[in-house]
Fold this protein.
Amino acid sequence: MVCGRMKGAVMAETGDSDICKQIIVQLSRSPKHREPPENASSDSATVIVMHPDGSVEEYDSTLIPYPMESEFCAWGSGHHVAMGAMAHGASAVEAIKAAAKINPGTRLFGSAVPHMRVSKKWKKKKKE
């Protein structure tokens, strides 16, 4: 679920939405003033931050950024199916539909997949 923007970046969340909201509040603060959410395990919630330069970071309740360096990424209970679909040429939307067919935790309400397209102004970061 896309949940907001921060300094030009787009954020999305998966997992416990209350913990995600706490993570997002902390990410809006200066790094030296961030405090991890209370009573949260590191795997209970994930916030994904997509930057205009094409880089993607994943945050859990530890508030440590995990850079995502693969060609494509997926999160949530159906991520294995979605990653496999994209590895075989599926678009992100097609991958979500494939995951919904196989994984009971990936639910679609109707046939539409909520998604957003990134502007062409956003550039993919060159690998060095």
About this structure: The longest strand covers residues 9-15.
